[in-house]
Amino acid sequence: MTKAITVSGLHKSFGRTRALEGLDLDVESGEVHGFLGPNGSGKSTTIRVLLGLLRADSGAVQVLGRDPWTDAVEIHRRIAYVPGDVTLWRNLSGGEVIDLYGRLRGGLDARRRAELIDRFELDPTKKGRTYSKGNRQKVALVAAFASDVDLLILDEPTSGLDPLMEEVFQSCVAEERDRGRTVLLSSHILSEVEELCDRVSIIRKGRTVESGSLADLRHLTRTSVSAELAGPPDGLAALPGVHDLEVRGNRVRLQVDTDRLDAVLRSLTDSGVRSLTSTPPTLEELFLRHYQKDATASAGAVAP
Amino acid sequence: MSSTSSAFSAFAVRPAAARQLAGTGTLLRLALRRDRLLIPVWIAVNALMVLSMPGTLDSLYGTPAERADLVRQMETNSSLRAMTGPVFGDSLGALTAWRAGVYAAALAAVMSLLIVVRHTRDEEESGRQELVASGTVGRRAPLTAALLTAAVADAALALLLAAGLSGQGATGAVAFALGVAGTGMLFATAAAVLAQLTESARLARGLTAGLLGAGFVLRAAGDSATADGSSPLTWLSPLGWQENLRPFAAERWWVLLLIAGAALLQGAVAYELTGRRDLGMSFLPTRPGPATGRLGTAGALAWRLQRGGLLGWSIGFLLAGLVYGGMTEGAADLVGDNEQARRIIERMGGQAQLTDAFVASMTGMLGLVAALYVVGAVLRLTGEETSGRAEPVLACAVGRLRWAAGHLVIAFGGAVWILLLAGAGYALAYGKDPGGVLGACLVQVPAVWVIGGAAVLLHGLLPRAAVAAAWGAAGAVLLLGWVGPALDLPRSVLDLSPFGHLPKVPGAEMSWGPLVVLCLIAAVLVAAGLAALRRRDMTT
Fold first, then answer.
1. What pTM was computed for the model?
2. Theoretical Cys-Cys bridge with B124: which of A21, B46, B129, B237, CB 3.0 to 4.6 Å?
3. Owning domain of residue A255
C-alpha cells in the first residue's frame, strides 16, 4: 500500500511560539484518517504545511509522493481542501464559487455537483455574505466532493452543519472511500471519526501522541466493567491493571486495562456473576485520557 | 447609588430614547481603544503639516511687501489657485490658511470617514456587530458611538490647530480649526448616511471618498475661475465652504452655520435610516446571483473582484480630465500679463508656455491621485490573504505568482487606463494638442508604477504591516507633490518622490532617461516583492 501523506519530525515555529515540535503523520492511500487534537495543538498548522501554504522549519513532508512546498501546484490538482471556517466573496454567488474552485482544481463533475447541491439542500444563487456559517461550509464541501481528486483534506469541515447535514456529510465521505480516495479528516466530532475513520492520529502540543487503527488504540486503553455478583468480590484490588475500583455491597464497578481483562473476568466469575455489562472504551475516553494528561500532571505537581 | 436611580428615572421618563442609545458609552470607549494608534497618527500628520506652515511661509515671504506681492500674484494665477484656493489676506495666518486649509480639511475628512465606516458598516459586514448588538446595546448606539469617535478626533485636531496657530491671531486660529474640524464632521456624517445605504464597507468608503474627490475637483474648477472663492462651483464643494470661512481675514462666521447645518442634516438622515433597517442589511439589498458560474481562473476572479473599483476610478478620472481640460484655456488668459505670476507658475510647471505649464501641473496632480489607485489595487492581495479567502484558492492548482499576477495586471494596467481616460477627457474638453495632453498624462505612469511596486514589495516582505506602510508611502508622496513645490523644499527632499523626476511635459523637453530608470525600479520592486511572496508563509 502506498502512502498518501508522510510526515516525520515536522517542526514549525512562529516567532517564539513553537506550533509543531516533531510531528509525525502517515496516511495510507485509500483510507480515511482521523486527525485529532485539542484546540491549538497544531492541526491546522500541519494542514497548511501539507498544502504548501506554510514552509516547514525542519522535518520530511511528502504529499502524494511530492514535496508540498516546491510542487504545490502539481499536488493541488489532485487535492480538494475544505477549511474549518469558509469565507466567501460577498458579491459572488455560492454556485459561482463552487464552479470557480472546481475549475481551479482542474474540473468538476457536473452531475455530481447537481446531486450534491440537492443532497446538501444548498441554494447556489445566494451571495457570499447572505449565507449562514453552515451554508458557507456546504459551498466548500460541494466543491470538494464534486471535484475529481485523489486526496481530500478536510479541516473540521462540519462545523455549523445540522445533524441531518452531518449525516449527508458522513455518507459522502463513505462514498469517497468506496471510490478509493484518501481522506484526511480533522474533527472534534468523535462519533463522526469513530464512524468514518480507519485509522486516527492524536496530536497534542505539536507532537503525535497516538497513532493507529481504532482497534489498536482501544487495545491500549481501559474497558469499564460493572457487575452484580452473588457474593462480595475478592482480590480485585490486587489484580494488575485495575483502576477506579468501586465496591458497594455485591455491586462492582471498575476500569481495567483492556489487555488485563481476562484476569478480572476470572476473578468475577469466582464470586458468581448475576449480571455483567462491559463497555469498550469510546474514542471520547481515549481522547480525554490524552488531553487531561496536562491537567493531572499540573495537579500532581501542586499536591504534596 | 444616585446614578443608578437617575438612570432608572431617565428610563421611566424617556424609555424609547434611552433604549435606543443604551451602551453608547461602552462602545465609544471600545472604538477609542481600537483606534488608539490610528487617530493620533492622523491628527499628528495633519497638525504637523499645518503648524509647520507659518514658519516655512515666513522664511519664504518674510516682509509685508513680499506677502502683498504674493497676494497680487494669486489674484492672477489661476492654476495655483486651483491647487490651493485663493488667498484672502497678507498676514502669515491668512497665508497659512490659504496654503494648508484645503489639505487640512481634506485630511480631516478622510480621517473622519474612515473612522465612521470602520465602526459601523465594517462591524456589521464582519459579523462582529451581531455579538455586540446582542448585549444591552441600543439600535442607534453603534452609529452614535462612531460619530462621537469621529467628533472626539476632530475636536482634538481642532484644539491642536487652534492652540498651535494662536500666535497668528486667536480669532483666526479658532475659525481655521473649526473649519477643518467641521469639514471632518461633514464627511463623518456623509459616511454615516452611505454606510446605511450600502452593504459593503468598501463601497461606503469608496462613495464617501468619491464625494470628497468631487468636492476637490469642483473647488479647484471654481477657484481657477474666480479669484475670491465666489464661484458657484466653489460653493457646491464643502472644501470651498472651509475656504470661504476666510480665517485670519475678516472671518465670515456664518459659513460655520452652513457647515454645522449640513452636518446635522446628514446626521439626522443617518439616524432615521439606521432606525429603520435590519442589522447587517441595507437599503440597496443584495440580489441573488447565478446558480452556475463562468469564473475559471485566478485572473478572472481578480478581475471580478476589482472591476467595480476600477469602474469608479475610471469615471472619476474621466470627469476630472474633462473639468481640468475645460479650465485650461481661461487659466492662461488670466495669468498672461503678470510677470511674477509667470515666474511662479513656470517654477511649478517647468520652463515653458504658460498653458503647457498649467497642463503639466494638472496632469501631475492626476498622477499623484493615480498612485492611490495603484496602492489600493495592489493591497487587494493583502486583503484576500488576511481575510482567509486566498487560502482555499491557493489550495487549488493555482501558484502564488498566478494568484498575484491577476491583481497586479489590474493594478498596473488599470493605472495606465485611468490616466489614459483622464488624458482623453482633458484633450476633449481642451480641444487642442491632444498628443501633448495624453503624453503629459502617460508620463506619470512610471512614477505611479514605482509606488505600486513599493506596495508589492511590502506585501511580499511584511504582509501584516503592508496596508499601513503602503498607504503611508502614498500619502507622503501625495503631500510632497501637493505642498512641496510651492514651499521651496530642498531638492533632496523633493527627489524622494518618484514624481519629482518626471519631465514636465508638455512644454519642457521630453527626457526618456528618468522614465526608463523609474520603470526599471518599478520592475525590480515588483520582482523582489513576488520573490518574497513565493518564499514566505501565507498569513491567516
1. 0.82
2. B129
3. 222-280
